[in-house]
Structures are given as structure tokens and as C-alpha cells.
Request: fold
Amino acid sequence: MQQPTTAQRTAILITMTVTVGTYVLTVTLANVALPEIQGAFAATQDQITWVVTSNLLATAVATPLSGWLDARFGRRRVLLGCAMAFAFATALCGLAASLEQLVVFRAFQGFSGAPLLPLGQAIILEIYPKEQHGRVVLLWSIGVTAGTIIAPIAGAFVTDEYSWRWVFLMVVPLAVACVGMIWVFVRPAVVTIGKRALDWIGFFFLAIAISAFQLMLDRGERLDWFDSSEIVLEAAIAIIAIYLFVAHVLTTDRPFLDLRLLRDRNYSVGLLLGIVFGMLYFTTLVLQPTMLQDLRGYPTTEIGLLQAVRGVGLLGGTFFMLLFLQRVDPRLNLFAGFLAQAVAGFAMAGFNINMTTWAVAWTTMLQGFGLGLMWSPITVVTFATLEPRHLPEGASVFHLLRNIGSSIHIALSATIVIRTARINYAELVELLNPFNEAMQFGTVMGGWDTASRAGLAALSGEVARQSAMIGYLNAYYAYGLMAVAVAPLVFLARRPRPAK
Reply:
């Protein structure tokens, strides 16, 4: 393969940065607009979640397909095709006339956009020498960071001032520009093109396993988990399908995903860290909006600004890495990032119902800063010893497991919040009875009226509010403990060669 010039490398890096940023922007924007979409289509809570679930399912299925697409059609063709389909799907989402159409178009959007992230990462790692991987991945990650800053603010403003449709339509011109940049700057000379038959049996089993597992996680809490026959069926399908997939890829000559890559110690450790990274990445994105809106009455615009603060912290961590820590052992940077996440998690677990905006802002920024310290090192450690020919397949598996980690965390967080809130509500309500002597003193009761139905209803609402807050605090505790538990594992990986 002919190596590109410095100017070509820079152009490709900028192209992939903008493309990935556009993809991340769309994913985050849709979450901001969910309440308005629900109102527009008169959808129930269970129905509206399919706008997110369909996208996650399609993304999860298409991500491991990236390596085969790259080997079969060539990276430039795949990137062009996916970017064009992504732009078209985004436009269709903005023009959807019904909830059913929007769900289908969101699935199309996720399926077409999923390969952009692993293939964009693979081409950057391929065209730059290994000693420069840390710096270029940091620069490339600015696209992800920019999306996390812009999306909450832009989404909240556009939704409040115009319509949820513009959350999708305003991204279309940027997506079209990405197509043009890929056409101009990603030339056939700087990518590899090969011929490889698709292992349809392996792909079928993996797609079934991922789909069933994702559905189980997304619908588990609403259906009371394994008390529901649907959840039991989905779990059984996922277990059987993943067993058949592993058995197949271990006994076929040309498997869909080569499990022999796991023999690479750094890659195996990197996959584990990638799963946890995905879990930690979505903590404030999932928990913070509902906590602030339901318990504190924050408006959508202010929640969007607080979500953007996380992106500012992520950007700060990225530049701090670029300026001061680039030559430091990436394992130490990863360890520091996990510790920053742990500090942020335990600080959030110290919130109370009267938490201040400043407390939310600085802990959210610290979480983002920790993510910024981790993004580049986790990539360097994971792919440091992997052969270049395995980069597309290795990157697709890495991002697949990172997405699965995110799904697991979303389900885990929701379960912790809801279940522990119910338990605490039951325990607190037990104390509100005529035989509790403390209730006979007005100063202890704080002015709550227990002599009327209206007073009891108001008191019940406050107990529910306090119980929900405890649920959120428990979820933050779990988040902090996860970061602490995983941090030492970074030293299981071999130290990559330092940059020259």
C-alpha cells in the first residue's frame, strides 16, 4: 500500500474527525428530543423508547460487519456508501409522518452510520506510524468531544424554539459535507481492498444474539425482568445464539470474527477496559436529565447546558493529554482517568435533594475530564500489538463491546434507581403512622399536614421524591465502585513502545 503524504494524512484526519463528530451529534440529539417526539405522536413511554432501541439494535448488528465490509469492498467505498446512506436516513427521520416510520428510519440511520466509527479509527491508525497513534487519536476524538458539547445545547434550543424535526434536519447539510470530504480526501491509494466471503452463518448467530440481548436489557425493567416470559425468552435466545456463534467460529476456516485475536494480551485487556469505558461514558447522560427534571424541576435548556459541561471537561482532558501527558505510559493515564471517574462518582453519591447547580456542574466536568484522559490511551493500549491487517476487524469488535457495555450500564442504572427507590419508599412510609411519636411534634414534621387527604398526598409525593434521590445516589455509588475495581486491571497490558 502506498503511504500517503503528510498533507493527505492531515486531510483524512480532519475528514474522519468531522464525520465521527456528525455521527455522535445525531445520536445525542435524538435523546434530547424524545419528550417532544413522544408528545407529537401521542406515544406511551414504552412506545417512545423504540426510537432509541431501534437505533441501538441496528448499530449493534452493523458494527461487527464493518471488518468484512472493509475487506470485501474497500474502505473508501464503504465510508462513502455509509456516509451517503446516513445523510439520507437522517433526512428521513426529520420527515417521518408517524412513530412507526421514525422507528424504521432510526434503525436505518444506526445501521448505515455504525461502520463510520470503527473504520474511521482503523484508517487513522493505519496511515500514521504507531509512535504517533496517541496524538492522532486525541485529535480524532475532538470530533466525539465536539458532538457531546454541541448536541445538548443545540438540541434543547432547536426543540424548544422550532420542532423536534429540526433536530434531524439541521444535521443533513453537515452529513452531506462529510460525503464530499470523503470523496475528495480519502483516495483509493491510501486504503486496502481485498476479497473475502462473508460467513453468513456466523453473522446470523451474532446478530440474533446481539438483538435478543439488547431487547432484554432495554425492556427488562419495564417488564419486571425474569418475571416476564418475554425477557426469559429473549435471554434464552441470546444464550443459545452466542453459544452457536462461538461453536461455529471455532470450527470454521473463515469465521466472521476471528476469536484468535484474543490471544493478543493487550487487545484482550483493551476489550475489557472498553466495555467498562462504555459503561462509565453514559452515566451522567442517562441519570442526570431525569434526576434534574423530575426531582429539581430544571428546564430542558439548563439541563442541556449542564450536559455540555461534561463535554467541556472531556475536551479539557483531551488537550491536557495532548500538551502534558503524551509521553507518559498510557497505562498510567488510563489509571488516572479511572480514578477521576471514581472521585466524580463518589462526589455525586454525596448529593442530596437540595444539590446546587455548581455541585452538579463540577462533578459532571470532572467525569468528562476523566473520560478525556482515557480516550486516547485506551486506543493505544488496545491496538499497540495488533497487526495492521487486523485493525478493521479489531476496531469493529472493540466498538461493539463498548456499545454493549453502554447498554448494560443503561439497564443497570435504571434498575438500581427504580428498585432501590421502591425499597426506600416502603421503608420511609412505614415511619409515617400515628404511632410514631416524632410526628406529634410540629417542628419535627416541618409543617407537613397529616390531618387531610391533600396533606397526606403532598407528604407521599415528598417521600417518593426523597426515595428516588436515594436511588440515584445508589447508582452513582455503583458507578464509582466500578471505576475503582477496574482501574488496577490496566497494568495487565504490556506497556506500548514510547513515542520517539
